[in-house]
Amino acid sequence: MTDNNNGVLVVVEMEGNQPIDLGLEMLALARRLTDSVGGPVTAVAFGDGLETAGEVLISYGADQVLINDNNAFSNFHAEAWLPDLSKIIVEVAPAIVLVGHSDAGTDLAPRLAFRLDVDVATGCEAVDVINGRPHMTRGCFGGLAREVVTFARSPAIATIRSKSQEALTPIIERSGEVKHVTSILDVNSIRTRVVKREREKAVGGVKMESAKVVIGGGLGLGGPEGFKTLNEIAELVDGAVGASRAACDLDWCPRSYQIGLSGRTVAPELYLAVGISGASHHMAGCGNSKTIVSINSDPKAEIFKSSRFGIVGNSQEIMPALAEEIRKLKA
Ligand SMILES: Cc1cc2nc3c(=O)[nH]c(=O)nc-3n(C[C@H](O)[C@H](O)[C@H](O)COP(=O)(O)OP(=O)(O)OC[C@H]3O[C@@H](n4cnc5c(N)ncnc54)[C@H](O)[C@@H]3O)c2cc1C
Questions:
Q1: CA distance 213 to 203
Q2: Is residue 261 in contact with ligand 1, taking CB distance under 6 Å?
Q3: Which domains does the chain have, with CATH numbers?
Q4: Considering 74, 215, 312, 314, which has the largest number of Cβ atoms within 10 A of its Cβ?
């Protein structure tokens, strides 16, 4: 497949009938990219019960929305999505395809690239068009450096990190076209079956990527009980709890808490790093936070270099005292 030039196609993941924030952030990026590559911004949404999805996606910047509304798509399943998605991309012929750097997107995008015989750049923070060709910027060497990659074939597929872009303010009056896709999926052709799906329990119902306050815990918490205090504080401030990979490796908290290069990306108003050394692999997932405050017993800890405020001390004494103070203030 070569010389696709029909704008930018965004694969928007849905949660129920609502797009996830990352989908809206990618629509903003797509709008900016079409200034250079021309053509429309096409949003593609797979799911079940997506009656209102079209208008929402148009208000956030899509020119046309292709809806694949089918109960086979109520949950993400790469094998089920691929036949329809590949066909849509061949028909639309976009220059660039943006997929979220989420659990689903990182599963989907490489398979999609293989099917279409094109290239994919995963974990991108920026996409720019230089001399008519998309250039993708992403972290490399464990987050210590940035590399820019470009491809000869089109469409270029890129997975985009959460919070690397800002969603547009929705304009309800924006007009666009909503089309319903006729699925070519043969359910009998799916070789894998999802037998169980467990929804991640967000602290106080706040999802890490959309929380204004994220509290990250590391080995300096001293054990799993340290996370109980972090969860308590998060509930008090409507925040979410994350962790370093080292803490997840020791099962002090669920794996889904992991922030960093091989975990989730957050950019809250406040990131409170507790007992975290500040390895580049961790900072790759939280370095864009507006304010970083860290608590560490080692005054020379690397994390202090990225922090606006630092507290040198024992987290096992500071965190319970902090919880107590917040409780008093709230009372
Ligand atoms: C390919 C690759 C990918 C990786 N991806 C990730 C990733 O996605 N996310 C991630 O986090 N890591 C990742 N890592 C691991 C990363 O390099 C670090 O090993 C990890 O982040 C360290 O976790 P930590 O800060 O909890 O532990 P440590 O580095 O051991 O730091 C613990 C900190 O706690 C402080 N401390 C100790 N006791 C106390 C106390 N009582 N009170 C306060 N502070 C205290 C110490 O001074 C220290 O600074 C990756 C590594 C590789 C090789």
A1: 12
A2: yes
A3: 8-189 (3.40.50.620), 203-330 (3.40.50.1220)
A4: 215
Q: What is the residue with the minimal CA distance to atom 28 of ligand 1?
A: 277
d(CA 317, CA 326): 15
pLDDT, one tens digit per residue, over 135-185 is 999 998 878 899 999 999 999 999 999 989 999 999 999 999 999 999 999
Residues 6+ apart with CB under 8 A from 255: 248
Handedness of CA 72, 256, 113, 56 (dihedral sign): positive
206 or 58: which leads in pLDDT: 58
Angle ∠(124,128,132) on CA atoms, nearest 5: 130
Q: Which one-letter DSSP state was computed for residue 189?
A: G
pLDDT for 1 equals 42
Q: What is the mean pLDDT of residues 298-317?
A: 97
Nearest CA to ligand 1 atom 11: 244
244 lines ligand 1 (CB under 6 A): yes
Q: Which residues pair with 273 in a beta bridge?
A: 216, 294
In this structure, what DSSP letter does residue 238 have?
Answer: T
